[in-house]
Write a structure and sequence with these properties.
The complex is a heterodimer of chains A (496) and B (433). With 496 residues, chain A is α+β, with helices and mostly antiparallel strands. In chain A, 40% of the residues lie in helices and 20% in strands. An 8-stranded mixed beta sheet of chain A has the order 5-6-9-1-10-11-12-13. Chain A has a 3-stranded antiparallel beta sheet with strand order 4-3-14, with no helix packed on it. In chain A, strand 11, helix 5 and strand 12 form a beta-alpha-beta unit. The radius of gyration of chain A is 30 Å and the shape is elongated. The N terminus of chain A is likely disordered. In chain B, the strands form 2 sheets. Chain B has an 11-stranded mixed beta sheet, with helices on both faces. Chain B has a two-stranded antiparallel ribbon with strand order 1-3. In chain B, a hairpin with a 2-residue loop joins strand 12 and strand 13. Classes of the chains: A alpha+beta (496), B alpha/beta (433). At the A-B interface, loops of A face helix 7 and helix 8 of B. Chain B: Belongs to the amidase family. GatA subfamily.
């Protein structure tokens, strides 16, 4: 090992995140325009004087966005101040209708929170510096080329005014894997709160600040002195749009930076763009000086007293707590509990089933059978939410011995999902009702008569012989017999 | 309602940028009245230029709330009144559509920035007018043209649809030939608006026109000595005569000094210019502004449009405002100005412990001649010394004709505590009598 290589390994990675989350509100943050984007909507059709920034238009705060932010604050154990205010962030960019963005500055709605993550069994607390509300700009479309070469750039203001929460973390991450775990956890929490839709394009946008520092500067708890961080050259990586992309982009960046150091090159403070398709980061600009946004208070929005909102707004049980409760109350193993709390809708569905059946039966059906079949079909639990009754009846038929487990799983459930039929219709159509005992007794006699060799083998003690005969009976019954009772009947007949 | 553009017309004083008629409803408190609307108020289908080449072709797709309210009250709009470009000026000479002449004083400025509104009323081209007052822009031209103008309490009248100059300071205000008419117009336009979050019901249950009864028996009026000191002697004399008149009608006159006021003009300009630099940022050529042949990146094209579309006073204020908000200067200028603003508010609050209304000459001078003051911005800014403190403190004030100096109108300004419009209207109606 060369001296330089040793030095490279002595670097620790320090990462902080800025996460932009689009809030699921019915209307935009400062006007009454809908936030629901149709796939085929016309550009600039979902706009009004306010979100277009027309001269004279004034913002009016959507309390639904404030409520969502307060929920996020509570979920992140953040402080919510007595009053919150809005500021203008001034900069010129063609997607910005007013050439300033309404955002929050010195009185954000959430301050000093935390979120616990777990990476390979290690639990870590990630500090949340702040979370604030702001408006999304419009979007640009470059016609006939890239941003540099396009003939013309078109502006669509449909997105303008969509409520965003920007969540800023402390520089607490020590690896790209931790950022992934954090973002996945954050998405899960936001979905539980009902304030976020991960399937919406552009609903999560992440900027990451990454620095390499001397490993000696990191203490046993993973803490690093502020002055060390200030001195470190910081790279900002933009255009990250998922937890998976965050890990990839930052892993790339760590190895790029370590390689640069290894070759004796100094790291610049710069902004880099994550190119998802090429899997690399590209330098956008070097940051010689911080942009001056000339923040000042927005007089058009009076300060909002939010102190008592915190008490008035309830949040649902969060995933970690629910997981622990499923283990404690239902006696589930932690793997099943994790699967069953993967989304709030799955957990709600499971609990509705568990009310009617033994929780372990319910867990097997929901976690193993249902989620597996849904996953295979690219379906979500929300696609069958209205069919809880049908699903319960299916389990009941099995529990009452009117349908075999095998037929329930492999025929009825699949057809329910593929064809949308109810279980009774499928059972009638496929003739899957359990065969009556007389018919099965006849099949047993037939099977014994037709297979004298197997009967001899059975009597000479060969284990496989009985299974063979069970198979024959099952075949004759078209799968409608219960293998356990066939086994029993065969033994009785053979041993008689 | 119908919209009818007319180019002709007898606008001898250039009071209008666009002469256009919008008929109001058939009945209502303003039925049969004509009204001039300052050209910074959005009118659906009628261009709204703000006195700027930047908005020469801008036609709003919506009405300002106050425009809806006057039309619903039965008034007929007769035109969009001339104004200083983006309301930045006190003479209406910075308009890209030419200066307005003062109907009450030939060859002199009508004041500003709502000079077209005041001139339209003074010339009889409209019964009523709407202006906006950011640092005196209703009271100044009312005083210079010899009409009545009211700057309401911040939050009494909706600003929705008013093209912003300095949004923490401005209010829409009525202009008319009499206190009662101005008050009637205030009755129509005031009250909360769901589209303007800064409006509130502080004026609930008020009857402004009814308050113009001239009854000042027992009213205490504090003369702000700090604002007398900087005024011309002739102006002070005329103002003094109107106070004597009030005293004769039963008011008690005292003197009040507010130490903070010496900083008001500086604080006002720092705050107004800072806000303006942000409010006017949207005029970048993407959707508004003259075509230019500029090549280059976005910033270069924005700059070319702003160079061509804005006049010198607007550019001056945007540059100074940008500077005042910049890192390293923010604390020295913007923050300090906010501190001064808080001090001015406190001084007024303290003064109103002892008096019902405060009084000063509206303008320290008589109307300057056209072209006389344009080259000296500082001189123009100082002309606002008596009006800007009111905007800094979010208070209501009225300018009522107090007499004249050699035929040139002088206005008396009466200032009250927040939402005391009835009181200052009552006092002004006594000055008028």
């Amino acid at each position: 090992m060369t001296a330089q290589a040793v030095q490279t390994d002595e670097h620790a990675v320090v990462i902080g995140l800025e996460v932009h989350v689009q809030l699921e509100t019915a209307t935009k943050i400062f006007c009454g325009c809908s936030t629901a984007a149709d796939d085929d909507e016309e550009p600039n059709s979902r706009t009004c004087p306010v979100c277009l920034g027309l001269p004279g238009a004034l913002p009016v705060l959507n309390e639904g966005a404030v409520e969502a932010a307060v929920k996020i604050g509570k979920a992140l154990s953040a402080d919510i101040p007595e009053r919150t205010t809005f500021h203008r962030k001034n900069y010129y960019y063609p997607d910005l209708p007013k050439n300033f963005q309404l955002t929050q500055y010195d009185a954000p709605i959430c301050q000093e929170g935390e979120l616990e993550i777990s990476v390979e069994g290690d639990r870590r607390e990630i500090g949340i510096t702040r979370a604030h509300l702001e408006e999304d700009p419009g979007s640009l479309q470059h016609k006939g080329g890239s941003i540099d070469t396009a003939e013309a750039t078109l502006i669509n203001y449909n997105r303008a005014g969509t409520p965003l929460v920007e969540i800023v973390t402390e520089p607490d991450f020590r690896s790209p894997a931790e950022t992934r775990a954090f973002l996945a956890k954050l998405e899960e929490v936001l979905e539980y709160l009902g304030v976020f839709d991960a399937t919406r394009d552009g609903s999560l946008r992440v900027d990451a600040n990454i620095s390499l520092v001397d490993a000696d500067e990191v203490d046993e708890e993973g803490a690093i002195d502020d002055s060390v961080l200030e001195d470190a050259n910081r790279t900002e990586v933009k255009n990250i749009s998922s937890h998976k992309a965050a890990e990839k982009a930052l892993a790339y960046e760590v190895s790029r930076q370590k390689n640069a150091v290894k070759r004796g090159r100094a790291l610049k403070t710069e902004t880099r763009h994550w190119d998802e398709s090429r899997g690399i980061t590209v330098s956008m600009r070097s940051k010689e000086s911080e942009a001056d946004y000339r923040y000042f208070r927005e007089a058009d929005l009076p300060p909002l007293e939010v102190a008592d909102w915190k008490d008035k707004i309830d949040i649902p049980e969060l995933p970690d707590a629910r997981r622990e409760r499923f283990v404690a109350d239902y006696g589930l193993d932690s793997e099943a509990a994790s699967k069953l709390t993967s989304t709030k809708e799955v957990a709600d569905f499971f609990e509705a089933v568990a009310e009617q059946f033994d929780p372990n039966v319910a867990a097997t059906w929901v976690a193993d059978n249902l989620l597996g079949e849904l996953n295979y079909r690219d379906m979500l639990i929300t696609d069958i939410e209205g069919r809880l009754d049908e699903f319960s009846r299916l389990i009941e038929l099995v529990e009452n011995d009117e349908l075999t487990v095998k037929n329930a799983e492999e025929v009825v459930l699949r057809s329910m999902l593929d064809d949308g039929d109810d279980p009774e219709t499928i059972i009638d159509r496929e003739g899957l009702g359990k065969a009556d005992d007389d018919a099965i007794a006849d099949f047993v006699v037939e099977a014994i008569d037709e297979n004298p060799d197997a009967v001899d083998d059975y009597h000479s003690g060969e284990d496989g012989a009985l299974n063979f005969l069970v198979g024959q009976v099952m075949q004759k019954s078209g799968g409608s017999a219960d293998p356990g009772s066939v086994n029993q009947l065969l033994r009785e007949e053979l041993d008689a | 309602m119908s919209s009818d553009h007319t180019d002709a017309g007898d606008d001898a004083h250039n009071a209008f940028i666009t002469e256009a008629t919008i008929e109001g409803d058939d009945d209502g408190p303003l039925a049969g009245r004509t009204i001039a609307i300052k050209d910074n108020m959005s009118t659906d289908g009628v261009r709204t230029t703000c006195g700027s080449a930047m908005l020469d072709e801008y036609v709003p797709p919506y009405n300002a709330t106050v425009v809806d309210r006057v039309l619903e009250a039965g008034a007929t709009m007769v035109g969009k009144a001339n104004m200083d470009e983006f309301a930045m000026g006190g003479t209406t000479e910075t308009s890209a559509f030419g200066a307005t002449e003062n109907p009450a004083a030939p060859d002199r400025v009508p004041g500003g920035s709502s000079g077209g509104s005041a001139a339209a009323v003074a010339a009889g081209a409209a019964d009523l007018a709407l202006g906006s007052d950011t640092g005196g822009s209703v009271r100044n031209p009312a005083s210079f043209c010899g009409v009545v103008g009211i700057k309401p309490t911040y939050g009494l009248v909706s600003r929705y649809g008013i093209v912003a100059y300095a949004n923490s300071l401005e209010q829409v205000g009525p202009l008319a030939n009499t206190v009662e008419d101005a008050a009637l117009l205030l009755d129509v336009i005031s009250g909360p608006d769901p589209n303007d979050a800064t409006t509130n019901d502080g004026g609930a249950d008020s009857g402004y026109a009814a308050a113009a009864d001239g009854d000042v028996e027992g009213l205490t009026v504090g003369v702000i000595t700090d604002l007398i000191e900087g005024a011309d002697d002739d102006v002070v004399e005329t103002f003094q005569a109107s106070l004597d008149d009030l005293e004769a009608q039963g008011a008690e006159i005292t003197e009040v000094s507010l130490d903070s006021l010496e900083h008001a003009v500086q604080a006002y300009y720092v705050i107004a210019m800072s806000e303006a630099s942000s409010n006017l940022a949207r005029f970048d050529g993407v959707r508004y502004g003259p075509d230019t042949d500029a090549e280059g990146n976005w910033n270069e094209q924005f700059a070319a449009v702003r160079e061509a579309g804005f006049g010198p006073e607007v550019k001056r204020r945007i540059l100074l405002g940008t500077y005042a908000l910049s890192a390293g200067y923010h604390d020295k200028y913007y923050k300090k100005a906010q501190d001064a603003r808080a001090w001015v508010k406190q001084d007024f609050d303290d003064a109103f412990e002892d008096v019902d209304v405060l009084a000063s000459p509206t303008m320290p001078v008589v109307p300057p001649k056209l072209g006389e003051s344009l080259d000296d911005p500082l001189q123009l800014y100082l002309m606002d010394a008596n009006t800007v403190p009111v905007n800094l403190a979010n208070l209501p004030a009225i300018s009522v004709p107090a007499g004249d100096v050699d035929g040139l109108p002088v206005g008396c300004q009466l200032i009250g505590p927040k939402f005391s419009e009835e009181t200052i209207i009552r006092a002004a109606s006594a000055v008028e009598d």
